[in-house]
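1st attempt posting a full record on here, be nice pls
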Amino acid sequence: MSQANKLQSIESLTVQNATSALDQGLAAIKAGTTVFDLASVKLADSSAVAVLLAWKRAARKSGTALSYVNVPAGLQSLAALYGVDSFLVESPANLHHH
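the predicted structure (as tokens):
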């Protein structure tokens, strides 16, 4: 059963807090989190995309599939701008189709 982490303490994911957010997410992944709920993220910049990609890489390196739910529209737009939207916003059903 997957465990969702709501990341409730993260309302912004910007260059100002990217390092602490990265560390928080990596700790959650190590603790068994496989789904991040991004509903509380109200403000994001390009560093948010880098953090989400780093979380994905860390999860895959540990043999875990990580997914994101409730990704804010602004963050989806940034991911699309960088051409990584399908990687970040995979549905759980698509996680095993590499």
